């Protein structure tokens, strides 16, 4: 691809409209306790986050375990009921819809799961696994459906014969390809990929990442790419959101986030990644302690307990996410 | 210093010679580790990298005599620890070495700690087994050890159970246990794979500190080239049960020679690079049951494979200044007869 074409592509992307808008999304899990199993508290898995994804772009969500990135993905798919906020998909508010309307809307957003072993039914033929979502929504001639599923298998890099096999006959990378074919079956607009490569070896990981990029171009897909590995997220995404304890602490384009991380947590996260180059052995910012429990989050800024730059105000007030540079949002009192 | 310890300083701490470890499948043994030789010197951190199924964990289990009984077996070769071959050691003799001279930490700290005993009890157990001390002394020592590995409130945590701790804390407890008797060699099998990056950075720092303070050697097994670059001195790259490349960490990253190592490095997305596509390695590792008898084991996936690669088994040869590679591409200078004879 030439540079001109690349800039053209970037420009057309700019004019594109929002496919997904998340406004003040909250997802709390109740904690039951006491004699009558009453609700005694909440785990604030996702606590008031907002972001938008433009058509054809990839938004990456990165954070450590327990930061709420998977819950965010599942809430957007409406697999979990949101506690508050709005999810606007392609102009339609899907936060409260249910029944047949939700079922219909779900055609447009699909998910690729982390564990390619657990997310495929071991009792079903691969062909049936992939055709099941299609059978759910439309009536198609048997022969025609089989042809279509086989073409999907070929598209994700599997042989046609895979149609008649079972999941256990495939390696981890191949299973993930089956999972991707299933997500593509309904020709969705948005694919939420929740740690799609973290169970795979590096050589296989790169195959799957390349496939996801190719498919995005070919089918004009929009991705929400969730992972804990910042270098993978950076490779895949146009915009990256960094999450900590249920909050978005920084949102920026992938270049800005790497060249100029603003939030102290993002800085520590980038600095903690071991670079595959012994000459870069650097003085790392090593954070002290662990992530606090989301059932009992610290007051004020969620990160102040581990922040090397914490001030007194940090423990009292939660800083809002605000735009400090064009397209670069950060939630920190320093800015 | 006695003459005995003077000689022992010259022999490498651990020397593995032509190790072959097999697993029994349908009454027949198949080798998961095939003729691996390497040394670990004193105070050295040796990294062993490879993808799943390359035999890196099997190798460490062979050294520790922890292979599943009746299924896995060391079928040939020698494991010399301070000059003595420990392959033939019985359980009793091994118990004297394990935990005292060689210890091991594992990937999953939750499953390797016993959930029904307190942290303090589990650390004291190691001390009581190997040292002549009382229970109270052992407990006091356990508290010091916990402090040394950076556990806050050590005097309280010593009475807590593994489930009360986070993953990073559990791995610290495992490390405290492993270094309790100041072993000469620590085998760390994917010690940070289950941890978050910020916690991984803490644990790597800790391992490096302990290694320097205790003058210990570490054999670090990992799939993550980043971790290797961060703390190792020497790296072995394994593929399908064999070592394909061995070099100092600087050499390996500056000038990777084996096609497998090169592809592995190009396949990782890097933070400072903008790349549209990543390198991939097509195909799969052959399973142990149908590993080719002769020829390079990577040949069927190698973009640089030549017809000879299927017929000649490459040997691990020094290419220049200690950088060893097992690949025919680097054996060009050999006379042809000898290359065929190398089988």
Overview of the molecule:
The complex is a heterodimer of chains A (335) and B (343). Chain A has 335 residues and is an alpha/beta fold. Chain A has a domain of 75 residues. In chain A, 32% of the residues lie in helices and 24% in strands. In chain A, the strands form two sheets. Chain A has an eight-stranded mixed sheet with strand order 6-7-8-3-9-10-12-11, with helices on both faces. Chain B has 343 residues and is α/β, with parallel strands linked by helices. The radius of gyration of chain B is 21 Å and the shape is globular. Chain B starts with a helix and ends with a helix. Helices cover 34% and strands 22% of the residues of chain B. At the A-B interface, helix 7, helix 8 and helix 10 of A face helix 9, helix 10, helix 11 and helix 12 of B.
Q: Give the number of helices of chain B.
A: 13
- Oligomeric assembly: heterodimer
H/E element sequence of chain B:
HEEEHEEHEHHHHHEHEHEEHHEEH
What is the name of the CATH architecture of chain B? 3-Layer(aba) Sandwich
Q: What share of residues of chain A is helical?
A: 25-40%
Indicate the radius of gyration of chain B in whole angstroms. 21 Å
Structural class of chain A: alpha/beta
Query: How many discrete structural domains of chain B?
Result: 1
| SSE order of chain A | HEEEHEEHEHHHEHEHEEHHEE
Strand portion of chain B, in percent? 15-25%
Q: Helix share of residues of chain B?
A: 25-40%
Largest sheet of chain A, in brief, is:
8 strands, mixed
Lateral arrangement of strands in the main beta sheet of chain B: 6-7-8-3-9-10-12-11
Q: Could you tell me how far the N terminus lies from the C terminus of chain B, measured between alpha carbons in angstroms? A: 46 Å
Membrane topology (chain B): Peripheral membrane protein
Keywords (chain B): ATP-binding, Cell membrane, Hydrolase, Membrane, Nucleotide-binding, Transport
GO molecular function, one term (chain B): ATP binding
EC number (chain B): 3.6.3.-
